[in-house]
Amino acid sequence: MPHPEPQYQLPRDFTGFGAASHDCKWPNGARIAVSFVLNYEEGGERSVWEGDPHSEPYLWEKGSSGGYKEGARYLNAEQDFEYGSRVGVWRLMRIFEEFGWKITIYAIARAMELNKEFGEYCVKKVGHEIANHGLRWLEFWDYDIKKDFQYVKDSCNMLQKVTGEFPVGVYFGRGTPNTHGALPQIYKEMHKEQGTPKLLYSSECYNDDVPYWVDLPYEKDLPDEQKEGLLLVPYNYDCNDGKFHMAPGFMSSAGQTYEQYLKSSFDCLYREEGKMMNIPLHSRITGKAGRSEALRNFCKYIAEKEGVWVTTRRDIAKHYRETFPYKPGSKTGGR
After folding, report:
1. Is residue 20 exposed (0-12), middle (13-18) or buried (19+ Cβ within 10 Å)?
2. What H or E segment, with its residue span, contains residue 111?
3. Which of 159, 197, 295, 305 has the maximal Cβ count within 10 Å?
4. Residue 53, number of CB atoms within 10 A of its CB
5. Which H or E element spans position 40?
6. What is the secondary structure of 132-188 as a DSSP string?
């Protein structure tokens, strides 16, 4: 059991920006920033071939009825994941190429290693962002602090090795009680040791529709001018295509309910103005033909609207840092 280190525990916040909300002042007067995120995990999931005790039970086509096999291969699950890397990912890439949009790839390092053509396509051909989603698609909640730090460093380095890009953003969705609060410090250590970039943003939060700053407990005794804080770019579960395989989820494997929910979410955030919208994807889920068509319909819908900024999380973070630079004690920062 990991020990929660006090200096890495981020406080809970139940008030946020209150009734006034927060306008992120997106570039060129855009009303909304839209972030498509592909969780690329295929090949990084649990498998006895990778030394795991059982097959992957989570987020594949048979859903909760699929189960898993102890100490044995489960070809049904394996091949559903393989569909994502062989077929689904390229179907999704064709959609984003059609609209000329850049997206963020939450990349599992092992998955990218097994499909180097995809990594080369993302970084060298198209310019999608590579963000850190972990070494493999596994829990690591029980790591001690030393192993925790090393895991983050190893996953960053492996992603740089196999894709050519060092990830400046992080979303594990898993981790220890210390991982999230320690990320800026881990990145600073790597910066000193290797000359790699510092952390630009973390998406290890689900509690808002806009980016915001948090103070870091381990910086509390530093002079204000030496504090760097942590920029959080929130993520979500409600628009996540993983809900096709979760209960109650989208209540059907068909894409139509999903498409309508995405449109409703967009309409609300577009009307409120100054917000961001997350659309989390998986190539083995939305990469299936019927669901990809629903996604394409949504893309057509927002492409026809004025003032929509479809971009990477890296560029969202850069804009926010420039427009609302960190100021200790302030969620929005300020000059």
Report:
1. exposed
2. helix 109-114
3. 159
4. 9
5. strand 32-40
6. E--SSSS--TT--HHHHHHHHHHHHHHHHHHHS----EE--S---TTHHHHHHHHHH
Q: Compute the distance between CA of residue 243 and CA of residue 127 in angstroms, rounded to an integer.
A: 28
Q: What pLDDT score was predicted for residue 62?
A: 84
111 phi/psi in degrees, rounded to 5: -65, -40
Q: What would the two tokens of residue 22 be?
A: 């927060």
Which amino acid, residue 281?
L
Question: Which residue is associated with the tokens 């890439």?
Answer: 93
Going along the chain from its start, the domains and CATH numbers come out as: 21-323 (3.20.20.370)
Question: pLDDT tens digit string along 176-217?
Answer: 999 999 999 999 999 999 999 999 999 999 999 999 999 999
Count CB neighbours of 91 within 10 A. Answer: 19
User: Can you give 268-330 as a three-state secondary structure string?
Assistant: HHHHHCCEEEEEEEECCCCCCHHHHHHHHHHHHHHHCCCCEEECCHHHHHHHHHHHCCCCCCC
Question: In angstroms, what CA-CA distances link 118 with 37, 42, 105, 111?
Answer: 15, 12, 11, 10
> Any idea which residue has 């995120």 for tokens?
37
CA 146 – CA 52 distance, rounded (Å): 22
139, 174 Cβ separation under 8 angstroms? yes
Q: Which helix (H) or strand (E) holds 202?
A: strand 201-202
User: What are the pLDDT digits (tens) for 132-177?
Assistant: 999 999 989 899 999 999 999 999 999 999 999 999 999 999 999 9
Q: What is the mean pLDDT of the chain?
A: 94
Q: What is the pTM of this model?
A: 0.96
